[in-house]
Every structure is written in C-alpha cells, then in structure tokens.
Amino acid sequence: MPKSRADTGNRVSTVLARQLGGQLLGFREAAGLNQAQAAATLSAQAAKVAKMEHGWVPFRDPDVIALCQAYGVDSPDTVDGLLKLAKLDRERRRAKGWWVTSLTQGSLREYIAMEDVALRLQTWQLALIPGLFQTPEYMRALAVAAVSPDRIDEVERLVDVRLRRQRRLRGDNPLRVHAVIWEAALRQMIGGPRVMRQQLEHLCALADQPNIDVQVLPFRAGVHSCGGGPFNILSFAESGALDVVHMDGLRSTNWVEGAEESAAYTDLFARTCATSLSPYDSLRLIESIAKGMNE
C-alpha cells in the first residue's frame, strides 16, 4: 500500500507542525512573497518552505526567526508563540512515550502524544463520561460493546491505554481539565446501575481536584449550540493562541488546526459553559443521579 505524501521517509506531518506551517504561510502571503523568495532568506530551495508550510518537517528556531523577519512579523509575543510551537513539535516528534508501542491506531497515538504535552483540555461530551474520568468498569462496558467478538482480547488493552492516559491528571504538572457533560451521559446506563453509580461517584471525587472543573448541561437548558458532536480543545500556551481541536468519529479523526477555526470552537465551548449548571450545582446533580441508581 503506497504511503501518503504526509508520511514518507523522514517527512511526517504532525498537527503542531501543520499549525505552525499554516501560520507562516499566512504571514508569507500577507507579505506578498512566493516560496522561492522566502526560501532565499534561508539559503534554501523553495521545496523546503513548501515542506515547512505543510508540516512535513520539524522547524529550527533560526529558520522561524528568519522567516518572521522576512515577513515583517515583529511582534515579540507572536514570534515567541511560534518558537514555542516549534519546540513543542520537536519534543512531540522525539517522544518515545508508552503509547508508541501500546497502540496500533495511528490517530489515537497522535491524540495521546498531543494530550501528553498539553497544558489544558476543554472537553464537551454528549453521550459518554470523558475518557480521562472513566472508571475501569465503565471502560470495559464500553469496550466490550465496541469490539467485535473475534477481537474481545483487545478489551483489556484498551482499558490499560485509557488508565495510562489518566496519569496526566496527577503529578507535579497535572493537565487542567474543564469538562462540560450533557445530562444524558450521566443517565445512560453503561454497564448497569452499579457500574454507573460508581462512575458518578468517581466523577464527583475528581471534581474536587483543583485542576478539574466539571459542569453539566441539564435537559432543562433546551436546545443547545453543541449538538453537532463531542470535541476536545487542547491548549499548549496560556494565551490560547496554540489551541487545536480534536473530533473523533466512528471511522475518522478530524483536527481543526487554524487559529480562526479553533477560536470558533473555543467560543462555542464558552457559550455552552454559560448555559450549563455551575460546578457546585453540577456536583449536586451528579450526586442526586448517583443516589437514584438502583441495583
């Protein structure tokens, strides 16, 4: 099977590199330069700039600085943001984390590698408890339903992967998570009453951690703007300028990488937060639903 242009030899297109390349492309076009003119700044061929703009190669700091100067990008904050993004991408490419050998699904490897270096995660879920908050029993119930009978041995591997991901919630520099969950996800009987009650109790315990915020969008809120599907916003800087959005479907994974597009999802998430219950009231609702779970 032929390899795509985005994954040939040493050229591997990554989400972070594509985001950085896209920003530099926008600056180049605004400056009225073509790829050959930009490449002359680097004493290179136009092909190098093309590879950079498509995220096929890691970025060297001197190249980023030289291109910014050529494009007239003189804001220290902007240049610093691009350099941080380049550094994150280089670290991401070098990373030999546990997910490299634990996973066969390339799209999931990419997401977990991004999650591993992110500072903050904002997640919206309609039908399920967020993966980072799931108990092993809840995970198994989901995995058994998703895996075909002839691949049932994969269930424990899938559970192990998700449990390892949850390590990011602890430690010296834990991932900060803000989750908004539709009430339906709290009431859907995954694994039966006992499993769901334990899951909801676990969710309440997590909500007490300083790096975790949980809000519930109740049924009574009516029509909401996030009905299109679940999504995750990963942030790699405090400013939000380096955000990417991840949406995982049944057969495909989609990344929203442009600054304008990711900002639209950030705004959508903020509006959903505003119509959801406060963290305190959300916790009270979760506790009430958990108590109502009968064997």
What's the number of helices? Answer: 13
CA-to-CA gap between the ends? 51 Å
Coarse structural class: alpha/beta
Give the mean pLDDT: 84
Pfam families: DUF5753, HTH_31
Protein name: DUF5753 domain-containing protein
InterPro entries: DUF5753 (IPR043917), Lambda_DNA-bd_dom_sf (IPR010982)
Domain DUF5753: 108-287
Structure characterization notes:
With 295 residues, the chain is an alpha/beta fold. It folds into 2 domains: 7-94, 434 Repressor (Amino-terminal Domain); 99-291, Endonuclease, Chain A. Helix content is 51%, strand content 13%. The chain contains 13 helices and 8 strands. Strands 5-4-3-6-7-8 form a 6-stranded mixed β-sheet, with helices on both faces. Helix 4 (61-71) packs antiparallel against helix 5 and helix 11 runs antiparallel to helix 13. The longest helix has 19 residues, at 76-94. It is elongated.
Give the helix/strand layout.
Elements: E1 7-8, E2 11-12, H1 15-31, H2 35-41, H3 46-53, H4 61-71, H5 76-94, H6 99-102, H7 106-117, E3 120-125, H8 136-146, H9 155-165, E4 176-182, H10 183-187, H11 193-207, E5 212-217, E6 231-235, E7 244-248, E8 253-256, H12 259-275, H13 279-291
Parallel strand pairs: 3-4, 4-5
Antiparallel strand pairs: 1-2, 3-6, 6-7, 7-8
Helix pairs in contact: 1-4, 1-5, 2-3, 4-5, 8-9, 11-13
